[in-house]
Write a structure and sequence with these properties.
By secondary structure, this protein is of the alpha/beta class. 30% of the residues lie in helices and 26% in strands. Strands 4, 14, 15, 16, 17, 18, 19, 20 and 21 form a nine-stranded mixed sheet that branches. α2 runs parallel beside α9, α5 crosses α6 and α8 runs parallel beside α9. About 2% of the residues have low confidence.
Length: 433
Amino acid sequence: MICNNLSVNRVGHLCLGGQDTVALAKEYGTPLYLYDADRIRERCRTYRRAMKSAFGESAEALYASKAAAFRAIYRIMAEEGMGVDVVSSGEIYTALSAGFPLEKAYFHSNNKTDADIAYAIGQGIGYFVVDNREELDAIESIAAEAGIRQKVLLRLTPGIDPHTYEAVATGRVDSKFGSAIETGQADEMTAYALGLSHVELVGFHCHVGSQVFDSDVFLRAAAIMLSFVAEMKQKYGFLTKELDLGGGFGVRYLSSDPEPDIAANIAEVGRAVREQCSALGIEQPAIRMEPGRSIVADAGMTLYTVGTVKRIPGYKNYVSVDGGMTDNPRYALYRSPYTVLLANRPHDSGVPFRCSVVGRCCESGDILQENVELPADTARGDLLAVLTTGAYNYSMSSNYNRIPRPPVVMLSKGTHTLAVRRETYEDICRNDL
């Protein structure tokens, strides 16, 4: 199994967090999102321990909400002492409604509206991660009206190519995010922010991409960012309090993917940061990282019921399920790989056949995975599991073809709890006039 929270029980059923997925599908129906809450907590603790060990007690891990955002997730983050990053007023509202302390939230996004900024300030947001000068002006104006001085970090692009998927590479000079160091725009933004009366510049942020499996990208980003920190101290006398190095590490979607040692990688980055700060003659800022995918991805699984099995001799085979791109659009968007198997007989030793696992949407691009090997006798009614779906599946789901979103069930210590109920047809039409 690609993750140690997966197993097969004595009746031959796939289990997540020790719980029988066939029994869960029978109780809650399919499609069904499952989350192993104990695994999520384990990942939070791994990051928090590793970061404080590597960077000191001032270091904090911030959960990147966009990976999966619903009330139960924010409750876990609050209980585990995590900060969060949020990218919309909707995520802020959800975090607040779950009781998350908003002073530990960092508000990202390259195009926050005036309404977003006013809402966040009105609710007591801890920090803005500022993308551009227009946003700084809006924060200055709205903070002045509120009579406060708002803490901000400036998002910078260090000009690093992480050699990852094009759609998730975010640290290059030509990125839509942030101000480039190479072009001088980051310097200009720093000088401008320091001149504002209702903005308190506390530091800098960068994010170089997703699905990073080793420390190399973070080492390169830290070196560039710390050199910029030293330059801003020399040029403007600005002492950076916080430095956010962005996302966490990659996850295993396939057995061929590496399994990163999170603690060892962070320790390596920690040593490099200490050495460079000493060499540059600067005090080490409080370090932040923003793991999202690696907190929730392998805690998740999606279950489907097989419907049509279509064989086209000499061409290809299709296995259709009762979900698809409405609950997981990532293959359609990124050609994202996933491990797929039958939950009701994951260790079937029969002759396999190669197929495309496809969804129920009236759309030729509704594909969950190509070239999947399933038992040759896969048939209507079998239970199919797609593994490692905890990140960007629920959060990117839609009602395309007016299909209701699946429910979310949280698993913990042998119990299961409904966290998000299954949408109804009435829910879909609720806002229609």
